[in-house]
Write a structure and sequence with these properties.
The chain is α/β, with parallel strands linked by helices. The chain folds into 2 domains: 2-214, P-loop containing nucleotide triphosphate hydrolases (Rossmann fold); 223-267. Helix content is 31%, strand content 29%. It is built from 9 helices and 13 strands. The protein has helices at residues 42-50, 93-101, 111-117, 133-145, 163-178, 190-196, 214-221, 250-258, 271-279; strands at 2-9, 19-26, 31-35, 57-62, 65-66, 78-81, 151-155, 182-187, 199-204, 207-212, 223-232, 235-242, 260-267. The strands form 3 sheets. The chain has a 6-stranded mixed β-sheet, with helices on both faces. A 4-stranded antiparallel β-sheet has the order 2-1-4-5, covered by helices on one side. β7 (151-155), α5 (163-178) and β8 (182-187) form a beta-alpha-beta unit. α3 (111-117) crosses α4. The longest helix has 16 residues, at 163-178. The chain is globular, with a radius of gyration of 23 Å. It comes from Gracilibacillus salitolerans. InterPro entries: AAA+_ATPase, ABC_transporter-like_ATP-bd, ABC_transporter-like_CS, ABC_transporter_ATP-binding, P-loop_NTPase. Keywords: ATP-binding, Nucleotide-binding, Transport.
Length: 284
């Protein structure tokens, strides 16, 4: 679906490159996440793929066609959600979607139904200027889906959302994946990346440090141990057991037989822990 080879980019007037010789592939139906702190090059990479930034070095192929050679029809097949939504302030949410739907040649989705999906049906006739940050982000996602795109580009899609709406948005993204849609998202929210991304790329200073599946990363970098929390006569205790010898560990067997087990957890590393270990940098 998307093939990027040896891409470098420098903004006009700058002396240093923002993107340094990056390469990656994204398969059809995959959710691929760029993770990194602000200034890492995530959004710049996405803007290159969208076609906003020209003049890059290297090769970018979308469906085996060089991005430079694609015409305006490309925008009929992609949906773009920037981190800072740009809508007409005096239009209502519904009026904004109606307006943007007229920009496409192909048939678009029903705006009212999209608003219902993101919980904005009751705010359909409210002016955009009166929307909260979270409401603006949800309307932004409606616009992404408006033309029923094959590729979704999402920049910090859960920014400003409360836990319930963030969960709903993640579920809607996964529904698009089930339809065979390809999703490229940029975020520094490791929870979002962990829950929905098939693969993630760690970006720092315009370079890709690592690409892998979140689960594989957590297994590879996690401690192969089981933490057991249990209640005994003297109170609540915790013990850590190696997974390699767990099957014949007498103390572990004794705890299971004699005490009330409160929690048991394998010691997987979080994506944030792995990011810091691999890159030496924090996300924020």
């Amino acid at each position: 679906m998307i093939n990027v080879k040896d891409v470098t980019y420098r903004y006009p007037g700058e002396t240093n490159n923002t993107i340094h010789d990056i390469s990656f592939e994204v398969a059809k139906g995959e959710i691929f996440g760029f993770l990194g702190p602000s200034g890492a090059g995530k959004s710049t990479t996405q803007k290159i793929l969208i076609g906003i930034l020209k003049g890059y070095q290297g090769n970018v192929h979308i469906n085996q066609q060089e991005l430079h050679q694609l015409n305006a029809d490309y925008y009929e097949h992609i949906g773009v959600g920037f981190e800072f939504p740009n809508f007409y302030q005096k239009f209502t949410g519904l009026e904004n979607l109606d307006f943007f739907s007229k920009l496409y040649k192909s048939e678009t989705q029903n705006p009212q139904e999209l608003l219902e999906k993101v919980g904005l049906a009751d705010a359909a006739n409210v002016r955009f200027s009166h929307y909260s940050k979270g409401m603006k982000m949800r309307l932004n996602f409606c616009r992404v889906l408006l033309n029923n795109p094959d590729i979704l580009f999402l920049d910090e899609p859960t920014s400003g959302l409360d836990p319930a709406n963030a969960k709903n948005l993640r579920e809607l993204i996964l529904l698009e994946k089930e339809k065979g849609k390809t999703v490229i998202l940029t975020t520094h929210n490791m929870d979002t990346a962990d829950k929905i991304c098939d693969r993630v790329a760690f970006m720092v200073d315009g370079e890709i440090a690592l690409i892998d599946q979140p689960k594989q990363l957590k297994v590879a970098y996690g401690e192969k141990a089981l933490q057991v929390e249990y209640r005994c006569p003297s109170g609540i205790k915790q013990e850590l057991f190696s997974l390699k010898t767990l099957h014949n560990n007498q103390q572990f067997q004794h705890i299971l037989a004699q005490h009330e087990i409160l929690t048991m957890h394998t010691q997987e590393a979080s994506l944030e822990d792995i990011f810091m270990k691999v890159t030496g940098r924090k996300l924020l």
